[in-house]
Design brief:
Blueprint: H1 5-9, E1 15-30, E2 33-39, E3 47-52, E4 69-78, E5 86-97, H2 112-117, H3 126-148, E6 152-153, E7 159-160, E8 196-197, H4 202-212, E9 214-222, E10 235-244, H5 248-268, H6 273-280, H7 285-294, E11 298-301, H8 302-310, H9 328-338, E12 343-349, E13 365-373, E14 377-384, H10 389-398, H11 407-414, E15 420-426, H12 427-435
Parallel strand pairs: 3-5, 6-9, 11-12
Antiparallel strand pairs: 1-2, 1-4, 2-3, 4-5, 7-8, 9-10, 10-15, 12-13, 13-14, 14-15
Bound molecules: 4-amino-1,4-dioxobutan-2-aminium adenosine-5'-monophosphate (4AD) and magnesium ion.
Length: 455
């Protein structure tokens, strides 16, 4: 049985007989023996293996080039050289698979753009291996965060007949064939009505919060917005908690607590994976994360944010005006230059927000909130929901939503309505924040963006 390299490197004692397997990172040949560095993806570190000439299997050494896969048997001994505590003195090596000269990762220092074009191989690099281990552990931390707080995990549907955000940026789901040339209607389609990939699990999540109290969803979401930016993907993962008996204040508290908790998790528990981002991506990463984990976030109303931006004297590409959405440049200035910490902006004009947000007493703003972080901008968007039946009906009418189609949603307000609130956190945006990676395409295994769906 092979032992993971993670466990070998962590070993408390030497061992007379171990088996390890992995991909060769480098091989160095000396007189009478060779060094193999092998990595099995279990951790950032690689295992150094010494193969003496004449060891069974050593006749294949010349084929154990960078990228080849090997099986090693031998003794785990204290390393003579610096850099690592343990190494393996091989008693046998087996070549599992060669990696000929066209293996694209022979050399280090490839550009992120090139590595995206070989997304099926890039997890074999140190940086992307670390990235996707962090992604895995952060997923686990998300579940733990909610489970420890009594939230129930709800699997909201991926195919949906509703449009949560009302922005019409949806991918159609259909079995109709656009090339058939035949006259087709929705009656001929699989669901006999227009259906799409979900842009958010919120509406379905709300119905469960109004039954199980506190719930969360965590799954893939899809947006057909044609914005080719470093922060938008057509397929991304969103975490959406929803809480009954909760107002905007409680919602903002949870979002802040969650960001802090996940950042702390990244700092404390990444088996050294974070160090590679500190070294190669962002020298100030740890310091920034520590600051975020231990300092209060700023909170201010949209109106105040607009005023501060207006008085800033900065020439933005997009002018700042009450009633307009904050642009990424505005969000980043607020958090990076002005407050120098994460900022939650709340109470936005109702005109620029979806139908489900609760109308404030001023009749002009809704209980929306966006949490902005340095380097990225919006990472969380949420609100208290409109729980008053008549106000919700009026909102729906204003947004052109028919009560016939959204009757199931309206029912939650008809039968035992309760104040409730929730938010959505973009999982990739969170990962960008904790690793310092600048492009969303580099934190998701296989990125889908306009014009790009390889693999
Ligand atoms: O602000 P958004 O659109 O809010 C919602 O969808 C609400 N229904 C959430 C809720 O209240 N339950 O999206 C929430 C978050 C954003 O703050 C952003 O982090 C992320 O989802 N996001 C994207 N991430 C990557 N690519 C995209 N195209 C994204 N669109 C939104
Ligand atoms: Mg938003």
């Amino acid at each position: 049985m092979r032992t993971m390299i993670r466990d070998l490197l962590d070993s408390k004692e030497a061992s007379g007989s171990i088996q390890a397997a992995g991909w060769v990172r480098t091989r160095r040949d000396s007189k009478g023996f060779s060094f193999l560095e092998i990595n099995d993806g279990s951790c950032l570190g690689s295992l150094q293996v010494i193969v003496d000439q004449g060891t069974p299997g050593s006749e294949d050494l010349s084929k154990m080039a960078t990228g080849a896969s090997v099986l090693v048997e031998g003794r785990l001994v204290e390393s003579q050289g610096g850099g690592q505590r343990w190494e393996v003195q091989a008693s046998a090596v087996t070549l599992l698979g060669t990696a000929p000269d066209d293996f694209p990762l022979q050399k280090k220092g490839h550009s992120p753009e090139f590595l995206r074009s070989i997304a099926h191989l890039r997890p074999r690099t140190n940086l992307y291996g670390a990235m996707f281990r962090i992604r895995s552990r952060m997923s686990f931390a998300v579940h733990r965060f909610f489970q420890e707080r009594g939230f129930h995990y709800i699997h909201t549907p991926i195919i949906t007949a509703s449009d949560c955000e009302g922005a019409g940026e949806m991918f159609r789901v259909t079995t109709l064939d656009p090339t058939s040339g035949a006259k087709q209607s929705y009656d001929d389609d699989f669901f006999e009505k227009p259906t799409h990939l979900t842009v958010s699990g919120q509406l379905e999540g709300e119905t469960f919060a109004c039954a199980l109290g506190s719930i969360y969803t965590f799954g893939p979401t899809f947006r057909a917005e044609n914005s080719n930016t470093s922060r938008h993907a057509a397929e991304f993962w969103m975490i959406e908690p929803e809480m009954a008996f909760c107002d905007l204040e409680g919602d903002m508290d949870l979002a802040e607590e969650m960001v802090k908790c996940l950042v702390t998790e990244a700092l404390e528990n990444q088996d050294g994976d974070l160090s590679i981002f500190e070294k190669f991506i962002d020298k100030g990463l740890r310091q920034r994360l520590e600051f975020v984990a231990s300092n209060p976030f700023e909170r201010l109303a949209y109106t105040d944010a607009v005023e501060i931006l207006g008085k800033s004297g900065v020439k933005f590409d997009y002018p700042v005006e009450y009633g307009q959405n904050l642009q990424s440049e505005h969000e980043r200035w607020l958090t990076e230059e002005h407050f120098k910490r994460p900022v939650t902006v709340y109470d936005y004009p109702k005109e620029i927000k979806p139908f489900y947000m609760r109308l404030n007493d001023d009749g002009k703003t809704v209980t929306a909130m966006d949490l902005l972080v340095p380097g990225i901008g919006e990472i969380v968007g949420g609100s208290q929901r409109e729980e008053r039946l008549e106000v919700l009906r009026a909102n729906m009418q204003r947004h052109g939503l028919s009560e016939k189609e959204y009757g199931w949603y309206v029912d939650t307000r008809k039968f035992g309505t309760v104040p409730h609130a929730g938010f959505g956190m973009g999982f990739e945006r969170l990962l960008m924040f904790v690793t310092g990676m600048q492009n969303i395409r580099d934190v998701i295994p296989f990125a889908r963006t306009p014009g790009h769906c390889e693999f």
